[in-house]
Amino acid sequence: MRYFRFFIRNQINRTEFKVTFMMLFLIGTGGLIMCYVQNYQENLVLLRSAADSFLLVSTESRVICMMYTLIFPLLASSLCSGYRNGGVLFSLQRMDKRKYVYGNAAAVVCLTVISFMAALGLNQLLCFSAFPLSAASNRWGMTEYGLMNSYVEGNLFDFWTAQNPYVYNVLFIITGSVLAGGVALLTYGLGYVRALSGLKPVLLSVIVFLMFIALFVIDGIFDFNAINYQLYVAPSEASLISYLIFTGGIYLAGVLLTVKGKREYECL
Fold first, then answer.
1. DSSP secondary structure of 102-163
2. CA-to-CA distance for 133 and 142, rounded, in angstroms?
3. What backbone phi and psi angles, to 5 degrees, belong to 137?
4. What is the number of alpha carbons within 13 Å of residue 176 lying toward its C-beta?
5. 71, 93, 197, 242: least buried by Cβ within 10 Å?
6. Cα distance between residue 128 and residue 133, in whole Å
């Protein structure tokens, strides 16, 4: 735990973390501001609930949500990308190399997951201060009875849209944050690849971002939705199984690259 706390502090103090976290904060608050401005002095009958004003589901903040889902891999890969393979390791000669490599990996994943949860959770909490818990109107323009029968069984968490929209929002906060942790771990692991180890953190993050954009383009060409990361960041027609396979594959790749990196360090 002493080492882990050191890794956490080390990552938080990096410029890359501070800049990216500020961007996440601005996205979370920007979504609320857009909803508030468009609903200012609106008739109470037409006002939507705090659940329907949440960033990932609100129609008023759709522009910011689209921007967020597009640059999601860039944000996730940049948050803790200030890691360097060389200098810090050799300045900590008393630290076991295995603890250094794995401890940094754990810190990267935990910080990324918590940061995304905090940014999205803040948006939902702020919605409570500006919008009612329940409202006569909703983002579908449907009656409550019609909404109860409109969910699609195969869609990710769609059952909760009618049962409890706040649980629905929390579930997407969790799944999106966990996916962000996987992207961060993959970026961390790629930092051990010899061909990429000399790149600046921002360039490595851009490479990871382009990798996910390539998957997005492949989905558009071949209609292979399972590899489209955007389907798992915000409510969509994705299934739970495809999410688990996609996210699990990213974590597996990150773990394998990290283990390989640890073995290379043991040879130093």
1. HHHHHHHHHHHHHHHHHHHHHHHHHHHHHS-SS-SB-TT---HHHHHT---TTSTTTTHHHH
2. 17
3. -100, 160
4. 30
5. 93
6. 7
| Contact call for residues 111 and 17 (beta carbons, < 8 A) | yes
pTM attached to this predicted model = 0.88
Handedness of CA 220, 222, 224, 228 (dihedral sign): negative
End-to-end CA separation in angstroms for the chain:
25
Whole-angstrom distance, CA of residue 45 vs CA of residue 116: 33
Tokens of 49: 């609930």
Report how far residue 59's alpha carbon sits from residue 125's, in angstroms, rounded to the nearest whole number. 18
What does the angle CA 138 – CA 171 – CA 214 come to, to the nearest 5 degrees? 100
CB atoms within 10 A of CB 32: 26
Between CA 119 and CA 21 the distance in angstroms is 8
What are the beta bridge partners of residue 137? 48
- pLDDT in tens for each of the 268 residues of the chain? 677 787 888 888 888 889 999 999 999 898 888 888 887 776 666 677 888 889 998 888 889 999 999 999 999 999 988 665 544 444 444 666 777 788 889 999 999 999 999 999 999 999 888 888 876 666 666 556 556 666 666 677 877 777 888 998 999 999 999 999 999 999 999 988 888 877 888 899 999 999 999 999 998 888 888 899 999 998 877 888 999 999 999 999 999 998 887 776 555 4
Close Cβ partners of 20 (under 8 Å, ≥ 6 residues apart) = 75, 78, 79
The residues facing 48 across adjacent strands are 137
Are 151 and 161 spatial neighbours (Cβ–Cβ below 8 Å)?
yes
Token representation of residue 243: 């999410």
Q: Which two tokens stand for residue 190?
A: 């790629």
